[in-house]
Design a protein that fits this description.
alpha+beta, three-stranded antiparallel sheet, 7 helices, binds glycine, binds manganese (II) ion, Creatine Amidinohydrolase
C-alpha cells in the first residue's frame, strides 16, 4: 500500500516541499506531513551508555583545551590567540570540531552574551570569560570558566565569582531526579518551586549587591542551562522533570557592564542509572584559588 505519512518538522516550509515532491514521486497524492518532534525528542533526551561514553570523551578533551587556554592568559595577549590555542588543543585531543564558536571575552566583553569576535587584547585587572568546548564523534560538550587576566582576582571579582560558584553548587545540590526541571528566566516568580534555574536565581539575588545597593538577580541574564547531546543545545521538553540518562549544563552567570565584570561558570552534567547527578567536567579548576593556581 502507498505510504500515507512522512515524519518531519511540519512548521518548516522546506518540509512541505519535500512532502509534495515525495508524494509526486511515489504517485501518492494522499501523502501527509506528520510532526516528528514528539516522537524524537523524548528519545534524544535519554542518552544510552554508549552516548554517555562519547559525551565524556568530548568533556575530557574540552577540559584539556580549557586548561591550555587558562595557562596562556596574560595581559597583552589577544583573545583570539587563546581561542586558537584552545581550538588546536581540541583537535589534537581527537575532537572533530568545536561544538560552537569559542567565546573569549575580556573586560567589557565578558558582559556581552554570545560575544565571539574575540578581537580585543586582554588587559591586566580585567576578567576573561572563556566558553569553549568541542565535539567528539559528533557528541558535544559545553564548558565556561572565568579567570583574572593578571592571575589574581581583585576582592570584588572574587566576591562575585564566589556568588556565581555558590549558585552553581546550590543548583547542583538541589537536583532530584524525576522532580526538578531546568526552568528559565520567565519562571522566576514565587510560585516556581521545582526548577534549578530558580534555585540559582534565588541564591544570586540574596548574596551580594551591585554598586547601588541593589540585589544581583537582575544581572543573571539567561537561563541556568540546556540539554546537551548531538547538538550543544539539544532539543528537550522543558515541562518534563530531569531524569536518568539526561545530559545538561548548569551555567549561572552575572554580567555587570557598569563594573566591567562578567562571570559564568558552566559544567556539563549527566544523571546516572541511580538518579545521581554526575559532573562530566573533571580535572579542571573551578575554586577561585585553584583557578589562579591553574593559570601559573
Ligand atoms: N556555549 C553555548 C552555551 O553555553 O549555551
Ligand atoms: Mn551552555
Ligand atoms: Mn557554553
Amino acid at each position: 500500500p502507498p505510504a500515507s505519512s512522512l515524519f518531519t518538522q511540519t512548521d518548516m516550509s522546506s518540509a512541505h516541499a519535500a512532502v509534495e515532491f515525495t508524494g509526486a514521486t511515489l504517485g501518492n497524492s494522499g501523502l501527509s506531513a506528520k510532526e516528528v518532534r514528539p516522537l524524537l525528542i523524548p528519545q534524544r533526551m535519554v542518552k544510552s551508555d554508549a552516548e554517555i561514553d562519547l559525551l565524556r570523551k568530548a568533556a575530557v578533551a574540552s577540559a584539556a583545551a580549557q586548561k591550555a587556554g587558562m595557562k596562556a592568559i596574560k595581559p597583552g595577549v589577544r583573545e583570539r590567540t587563546i581561542a586558537g590555542l584552545e581550538l588546536a588543543k581540541m583537535l589534537e585531543s581527537g575532537c572533530e570540531r568545536p561544538s560552537y564558536a569559542p567565546i573569549v571575552g575580556s573586560g567589557i566583553n565578558s558582559t556581552t552574551l554570545h560575544y565571539s569576535s574575540n578581537e580585543a587584547t586582554m588587559e591586566k585587572g580585567d576578567v576573561v570569560v572563556i566558553d569553549a568546548a568541542c565535539e567528539y564523534s559528533m557528541y558535544a560538550s559545553d564548558i565556561t570558566r572565568t579567570m583574572p587576566i593578571g592571575g589574581k582576582f581583585t576582592p570584588r571579582q572574587r566576591e562575585l565569582y564566589e556568588i556565581v560558584l555558590g549558585a552553581h553548587r546550590a543548583a547542583a545540590a538541589a537536583f532530584i531526579a524525576g522532580k526538578m526541571r531546568l526552568g528559565n528566566v520567565n519562571q522566576r516568580g514565587p510560585e516556581v518551586t521545582d526548577t534549578l534555574d530558580k534555585i540559582a536565581y534565588d541564591y544570586i539575588n540574596t548574596h551580594g549587591k551591585d554598586l547601588h545597593g541593589e540585589p544581583l538577580g537582575k544581572y543573571f541574564l539567561h537561563g541556568l542551562g540546556h540539554h546537551v547531546g548531538i547538538n550543544v543545545h539539544d532539543p528537550y521538553d522543558p515541562a518534563k522533570p530531569l531524569d536518568k540518562g539526561n545530559v545538561f549544563t548548569i551555567e549561572p552567570g552575572i554580567y555587570i557592564p557598569e563594573e566591567k565584570i562578567g562571570i559564568r561558570i558552566e559544567d556539563t552534567y549527566y544523571v546516572d542509572a541511580d538518579g545521581k547527578l554526575v559532573n562530566l567536567i573533571t580535572n579542571l579548576p573551578v575554586e577561585p584559588n585553584s583557578v589562579e593556581a591553574g593559570m601559573r
